[in-house]
Automatic annotation (TrEMBL):
InterPro entries: ACOX_C_alpha1 (IPR055060), Acyl-CoA_Oxase/DH_mid-dom_sf (IPR046373), Acyl-CoA_oxidase (IPR012258), AcylCo_DH-like_C (IPR036250), AcylCoA_DH/oxidase_NM_dom_sf (IPR009100). Transmembrane segments: none annotated. PANTHER family: ACYL-COENZYME A OXIDASE (PTHR10909:SF382), ELECTRON TRANSPORT OXIDOREDUCTASE (PTHR10909). GO terms for molecular function: acyl-CoA oxidase activity; FAD binding; fatty acid binding. One of its GO terms (biological process) is fatty acid beta-oxidation using acyl-CoA oxidase. This is Acyl-CoA oxidase C-alpha1 domain-containing protein. GO terms for cellular component: peroxisome. Residues 252-383 form the Acyl-CoA oxidase C-alpha1 domain.
Amino acid sequence: MQKTSSLVQSPLFQDSGIEGLPFLERVKISYARAKAVANVYNLTVSDILHLSRRYWEFHNDPILIMDGSVGTLLTIQYNLCLGTLAHFAENRPDLQRIISEVLNFDISGQYCLTEVNHGLDAINIETTATLQSNGEFILHTPHSGAAKYMPPTAPFGIPCVAIIFARLMVAEEDHGIRGFVVMLHHGVSMLPGITCKLLPPRGGSRPVGHSLTYFNRVYLPSGALLGDLERPKDVRECFFQNIHRVITGTLSMGTLALSALRIACYIGTSYSLERQVLNGSNGVPRPISSFSTQYIPLLTSIAQTIVFRAFGEDMYEQFVNRDVSIAQKHLLAAVFKTTVFRHTLDILVDIGDRCGAQGLFEINQLSVIHADIRGAAIAEGDILGISIRFAIDILRNRVRVPEAAYPDDLLARHEHSIIQELKEVWRSTSNQRNTHSEGLLLPHCRGVLEAVGHRCAYEAAIAKGVPRPLINLFVASLFQLDPAWYSENAELSRWRQKNLLLERATELYPDLAQLLPLLEIESYVTAPIVSKNRWNKYVSNLPSYPTEQLAKL
Ligand SMILES: Cc1cc2nc3c(=O)[nH]c(=O)nc-3n(C[C@H](O)[C@H](O)[C@H](O)COP(=O)(O)OP(=O)(O)OC[C@H]3O[C@@H](n4cnc5c(N)ncnc54)[C@H](O)[C@@H]3O)c2cc1C
C-alpha cells in the first residue's frame, strides 16, 4: 500500500471544486499539497543522496502525478535543490540549517539553471557571480535574456531558497559555471536586488507558478558558493559534475510517467467497460470495450504499462548498483525516460479520445495529466535533447548499450539493426560536410534510444515474471512504430503484423476487467467517469442555475 493512501482521501486532495478556482489560489493549494506529501514521507538526506528504497517509493507514488504540480514542486525540492546542497554539505556546517528546512519543506527549494536564452545549451548561461576582494560575490543578470526561466520562485507564503547557477568570474577570468545558494524571499516579497515576474498559467496543466527571476548586483557571502574557486581543467566536465542531479531527475521523470500510465489505463478501461451502446443489428446493449478499436488500445496500453513498470524496477536496481558508472547510469536514465515518455504522451491522448468528450475535461484527469507530462518530458532532460546526445554517443562507440540477454529475439534484432544501419550512415558521411550527416542522423536519434528501451523493457519484463500474454502483446504493439523493418527483416507482412496485434489483444480481452487491480492505482483515480455512482455524485455537486420564476398569471 502507498504511504499516501490516507492523505489522498483527505479533502485537500479530493475537493472537486479546485478546477474553477483562480490561478493564484490554485498555486497555494499546490504548495499545501506538496508540503502534506513531504510530511508523509519524512525523507532524509541519505534517502536522497543514495536513492534509497524509500526515495524510490516516493517517486513511484501516484500522488505526484495525480496532481502534477506536487510532483514538479517536490522533485525540484528534493532531487535538484536538496540533492545538490547535500552533495556539497560535507565540512559545510553552515549549510545544515538550510538543508533541514528544505527537507521539511519549511522553505521552498528551487534550482535555477535555465535562462530565457539558454535551455538545452545551459552550458552557455550568462548570469555572473563575480568574486570581490573580500571573498564575497556579486550576482548579476547582465540582460533580460539571462533571466532565470521556469523555476517557481514567486512568493506564495513560504520562504524560498534557490541554487542559482552562474558563471564564476575571478579577476575578469571565466572560471566556469557554479551553483550559489541564494535566499530569494521570506514568503511575501522578493529580497533586495531580486526581481520575480510571475509567468501566466501554462494552459491545461496543474499550476506551480513558473517565473522569471532577475538579479541586480546582489551581494552574496563567500559561503554561497558551492564548490571551489579554481578554474577547471575541463569546463564541460565541471559543468556536468555540478548539475549531476539532473541524471537522477531524468530517472525520476520517467518514474512519474509510469504513474500517469497506470491512472490513464484505469480510467479508460473502467469507462469503456461501463459505457454501453445499443448494437446496431439487434438493439442489444454492448459495452464499448467490446469494440476492437477500444480494447486494442486499452490492452496494449495496459501491457505497455505493466512491462514499463518492470523496466522501471530494473532501472532502479542498476542505479543503486555501485558497479555501474555515472556515465552508464545517465545513458540508462535517458533510455528509460525517452522510451516511457514516447508511449505515455501517446497513450494519454489515445485513451482520452476513446473516452469521447469526457476525455477532454480536467476533472477526468487525462487531459491535465497529459499537459503535466508534456512539461515533464522537457524538464530534467528534454527527451529529444538527451536522445540526440546519447544516440550520437552510441553510434560513435563512446557508450555501450546494455548487452542483450536474448540477442536472437525480435526486439534485440531490431535494436541491433537500427544501430548498425545508422553507424553505417555515420561512417559513410563522416567525410562529408557536418551538416549533411547531422541532417541525416538527428531525426533518428529518438528511434535509437527507443529501440534500446523497448528491448531492455522486454527483457526486464521477462526477468520480473510479467505474464507472457502481456509481453507478447507489448511486442506486437511495437510493430506499428517501424512496420517496414519487421516486414523486411522478420518476415512479418503488414497484415501479419496487424493480425498478430489483434490476436494477442483479443486473447486478453476476456481478462480486461481482471487486469485493473494489477495497476494498483484505484485510490488515486478521481475521475468521475469511472463509475455511475461517482458520476452521479459529481453531478449532484455541480452548481445549477435556478429556474426563472414564471410570472403569476
Ligand atoms: C515543467 C518544467 C519545469 C521546469 N523546471 C525548471 C527548473 O526548476 N529549473 C530550471 O533551471 N529549469 C527548469 N525548466 C526548464 C527546462 O530545463 C528547459 O525548458 C529545458 O532545458 C529546455 O530548454 P528550453 O525550453 O529553453 O528549450 P530550447 O533549448 O530552446 O530547445 C527547444 C527545442 O529546440 C531544439 N533544439 C535546441 N537545441 C538543440 C540541439 N542542440 N540539437 C537539436 N535540436 C535542438 C529542440 O527541438 C528543442 O526541443 C523547466 C521546464 C519545464 C517544462
